[in-house]
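Example 9 (inverse folding). The structure is encoded as follows.
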């Protein structure tokens, strides 16, 4: 071999060994094990009426080079587009992805552990009972097999037989009774075991649900500690709705409105002692208004067809390239600086948000948990209302004002008055007026009577018309120890034909609504006093006609 060729070959081998050694040194940097983070702390949870945004914080030790940080144990219902992340440390974020993990086994909840312990105890007791039943059964068999007395060929004297029979009956009776008692115990234990197994099956099914992983690929400049703050939106299995307590002490007190929420979630992650905020918004609904584009008409143009084999197909069209373009962006090495991402929270006139100062625990069990939002004192005007035409009792009512500016959501309300539960109502701010009127119940101490006066009521004829007169007396007696304000309501008919005339003659100072026919008296009545009112009206119509409803 030529000396120059030998020297060149020796140099190439040396370079190959150096290159191999360099690659071996770089291999750990190119294929490092992921850093798993299972204890990312929850900073706060914003619960929407459908969905929730969870904010977390965590720390991880990074090695120098490219590696993945996996935040696991998260909800499998995360919207990947909603993930936002920022970090601190000598590293750069290369990508953020979401992955559903079907393989990781969840840690058993305390309830599952407790039920499994109860099931083990019941199973042990059940086995003990079954063992005792088996012993009793064998004892009965043994007693029956040895009931022969004196052998097969020898007789038995009567005085010897009687005590043996008594013994057999007594012993067999005791064995049968003991066996029956043990069988009853076995039945009850079987029922308890079945119920526990059913409950455990349901809880284990929830526990077997997949979890979610957020995978962050980073490039660290040097080994060291890095901090991460990230948030994501859980798009299902979380919700809340409003309900209220309306409480008043007496007719001289304001109403206390207690604004509450019932929260439930089965997102796959437990929220233990976390700061909550409740929002009336819904991130799953688009917030952009629709755009009305021009409605264009044109002549129909047949699509050119071509054949591929024996199948006619439409001519190929241009394809959207957004996915491919996005892939190229990743391939071109576009990177996000760990300190560059920010989260902006806005408040608008359409949605309200309530920050709950007291930490709450909301497990992922689908049950409802009550969260108190706010308390308000609202002014109320109390009146008794009586409509004796429909009901003989007087009803205490409260007109509540000042609630329309409280950003309330629709929801049911429990009403309490004077320390007692009165009933239920429903608050719907979108449909209610500035004044909310609620009924607080009947008061039998106020007596209201409506009597028709026969002497002043009747029919008369005037030429081609008939006239009908109606007159009613009203009596209100206040049997309470304090003065009351009472609204007394009645009505006169409203005509729908011009030939029918309605004329009031006596109202006793009532307000008369000519459009609705409502008659209203506002009465201030001292304790123990009585008030009287009279209503008289006439209806005139053609005598050859009949009036419906009169």
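The amino acid assigned to each position is listed next.
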């Amino acid at each position: 071999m030529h000396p120059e060729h030998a020297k060149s070959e020796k140099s190439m081998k040396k370079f190959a060994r150096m290159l191999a050694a360099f690659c071996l040194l770089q291999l750990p940097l190119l294929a490092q094990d992921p850093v798993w983070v299972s204890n990312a702390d929850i900073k706060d949870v914003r619960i929407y009426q459908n969905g929730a945004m969870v904010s977390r914080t965590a720390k991880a030790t990074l090695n120098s080079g490219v590696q993945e940080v996996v935040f696991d144990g998260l909800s499998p219902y995360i919207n990947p587009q909603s993930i936002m992340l920022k970090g601190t440390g000598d590293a750069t974020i290369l990508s953020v992805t979401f992955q559903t993990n079907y393989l990781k086994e969840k840690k058993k909840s305390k309830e599952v552990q407790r039920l499994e312990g109860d099931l083990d105890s019941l199973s042990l007791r059940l086995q003990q009972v079954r063992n005792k039943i088996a012993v009793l059964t064998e004892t009965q068999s043994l007693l029956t097999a040895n009931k022969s007395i004196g052998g097969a060929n020898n007789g038995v004297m009567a005085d010897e037989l009687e005590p043996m029979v008594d013994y057999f009956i007594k012993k067999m009776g005791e064995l049968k009774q003991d066996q029956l008692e043990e069988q009853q115990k076995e039945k009850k234990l079987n029922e308890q075991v079945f119920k526990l197994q059913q409950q455990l099956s349901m809880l284990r099914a929830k526990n077997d649900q997949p979890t979610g992983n957020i995978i962050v690929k980073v490039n660290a400049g040097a080994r060291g500690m890095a901090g991460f703050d990230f948030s994501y939106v859980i798009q299902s299995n979380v919700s809340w709705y409003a309900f209220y307590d309306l409480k008043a002490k007496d007719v001289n007190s304001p109403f206390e409105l207690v604004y509450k929420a019932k929260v439930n979630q089965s997102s796959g992650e437990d929220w233990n002692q976390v700061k909550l905020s409740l929002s009336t918004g819904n991130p799953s609904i688009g917030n952009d208004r629709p755009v009305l584009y021009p409605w264009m008409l044109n002549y129909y143009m047949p699509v050119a067809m071509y054949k591929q084999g024996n199948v006619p197909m439409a001519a190929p069209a241009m394809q959207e390239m957004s996915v491919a373009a996005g892939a190229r962006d990743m391939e071109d090495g576009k990177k996000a600086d760990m300190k560059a991402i920010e989260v902006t929270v806005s408040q608008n006139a359409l949605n309200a948000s309530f920050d709950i100062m007291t930490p709450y625990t909301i497990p992922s069990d689908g049950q409802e948990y009550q969260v108190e939002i706010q308390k308000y004192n609202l002014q109320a005007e109390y009146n008794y209302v009586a409509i004796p035409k429909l009901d003989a009792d007087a009803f205490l009512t409260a007109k509540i004002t000042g609630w329309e500016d409280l950003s309330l959501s629709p929801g049911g309300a429990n009403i309490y008055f004077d320390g007692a539960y009165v009933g239920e109502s429903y608050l719907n701010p979108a449909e209610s007026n500035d004044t909310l009127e609620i009924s607080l119940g009947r008061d039998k101490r106020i007596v209201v009577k409506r009597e028709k006066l026969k002497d002043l009521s009747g029919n008369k004829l005037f030429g081609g018309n008939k006239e009908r007169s109606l007159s009613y007396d009203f009596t209100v007696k206040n049997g309470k120890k304090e003065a009351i304000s009472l609204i007394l309501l009645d009505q006169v008919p409203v005509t729908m034909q011009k030939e029918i005339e309605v004329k009031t003659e006596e109202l006793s100072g009532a307000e008369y609504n000519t459009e609705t026919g409502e008659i209203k008296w506002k009465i201030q009545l001292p304790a123990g006093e009585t008030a009287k009112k009279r209503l008289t009206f006439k209806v005139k119509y053609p005598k050859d006609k009949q009036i419906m409803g009169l």
